[in-house]
Amino acid sequence: MAPPITIRLNDQDSVVIARSTLLPGTEIAPNTLATQRIPAGHKVAVRPIPQGQPIRRYGQIIGFATTNIAPGQHVHTHNTGMGDFTRDYAFGVDARATNFTNTPATFMGIRRPGLNGADGRVATRNYIGILTSVNCSAHVADLVAMAFRRDPISGRNPLADYPNVDGVVALTHKTGCGMAAGEPLALLRRTLGGYARHPNFAAVIVLGLGCEVNQLSGLLQEQKLAGRLRAMDIQEMGGTRKTVEAAIAFVREVLAEANNIRREPVPVSELTIALQCGGSDGYSGVSANPALGIASDILIRHGGSVILAETPETYGAEHLLTRRAPDRETGEKLVALMRWWEEYTARNGAEMDANPSPGNKAGGLTTILEKSLGAMAKAGSTNLVEVVAYAEAPTRKGFIFMDTPGYDPVAATGQVAGGANLVAFTTGRGSVFGCKPAPSLKLATNTPMFQHMEEDMDINCGTILDGTESIEECGQKIFNLFLQTASGTQTKSETFDFGAAEFAPWVIGATM
After folding, report:
1. Which of these CATH numbers, 1.10.510.10, 3.40.720.10, 2.30.130.110, 2.60.40.10, describes 6-81?
2. Which of 498, 417, 505, 485 is nearest to 271 (CA)?
3. Burial of 290 (0-12, 13-18, 19+ CB in 10 A)
4. Fold for domain 106-264?
5. Rounded to whole angstroms, how far apart are CA atoms 115 and 502?
6. CA 263 to CA 243: how far, in whole Å?
7. Which pLDDT belongs to residue 119?
8. Predicted structure pTM score
9. pLDDT band at residue 117 using 50, 70 and 90 as cut-offs
10. Cα 88 vs. chain centroid, distance in angstroms?
11. Which of 132, 214, 200 is nearest to 171 (CA)?
12. Is 186 exposed, middle or buried (CB count within 10 Å of its CB: 0-12, 13-18, 19+)?
């Protein structure tokens, strides 16, 4: 039996979603016909919505009618706007004890004996990392990494004798100087410290220039970095050539030890998944995001953790998360973040509803409220146990919220700095993304895009829309892929060597 031509998510909804393009005259509900062409993934009204009245999807407010909307009309940016409404935060009313499984799953991980304070933590990948304190040392870092890259023409592979090493990767950025020595510098150092300690790095070099605000000595002391880490200032080393030679020598020194690892069964409690969405469409909140939410719930029941981020893309839906906070203090932290972002955007002459991108809108999303309600589905239904700052390592297991911008590379960089050792990334328009040293899985929201970009997509969640798979079945499939990927199976983005250029620490404050 073919699935219905529209998707209704809640009985209170005043709109339904077009499963495919609807032509005028198509019956969208009993005794209700489409009066306009409705693109796939877009909304169509199923009841009259007077001007100024709320429009509901997911049973929640996604905007307000800017004109009278009749049944059968296309509901989108031309007749929908933002408006003020009261959120009932109802702290903790939906908090429930997690039903942990008695037989936790395992995966084949790499247990680190101790790296920069990461004693006993488990890796899903095995890289050697080159970090930079400042943009001025970025090219030198790239020169070091290039010495260990496979030549696509000759096929020469400097790491051929080290099959257990996933690569030597330079993660560079655009800041580190011309910045205030307060919160902007502390945030950058927290990000770099999180990467330096990340278990997916067997060893790390940090390269500085020597005269930057982000001095290596301050970074190492503040972040308490030690272990298999070498710090070098280009000016102190005597210039580019001498620094590159010294850094290459260090990599060669640690390669044999880095290669001497073995994977062993470890509990899923050692997995922390960064939840991401990018290039979202009208189907994201219907297929891939709720399926990822099922996978998140399964992971947490097995003792693992997930980190939801992108604070601006939770705006308008935060009241559904505060209800899942086991205590008021945790919920209040989330509300305080929303107030900060309102002030931050206003201070910079922007507004929260500027978040949905042109691609989001072309895919059927209209307001930040609608986007947020779909995005938060990635986090499933378990308790919100902790709210952390950007790049801050969580102290609890379970569902964590991290404060980040909505821009995917910046958000994912913060999550990985906080300890995520795998990234799950849903997309409707077709994002291509990697996040070294953590492998990144792409979850497609719809079958046409999956088929069009199959070389970049790991799972097709469009099967939910096609009626061939339930949300629960797709969620279980995603969880199973978590275990396979964490055990070493390459993702599609890894086959294209994505993940170095996407490193993007959040830059706040003035550049001076």
Report:
1. 2.30.130.110
2. 485
3. buried
4. Rossmann fold (3.40.50)
5. 24
6. 33
7. 56
8. 0.94
9. very low
10. 27
11. 132
12. middle
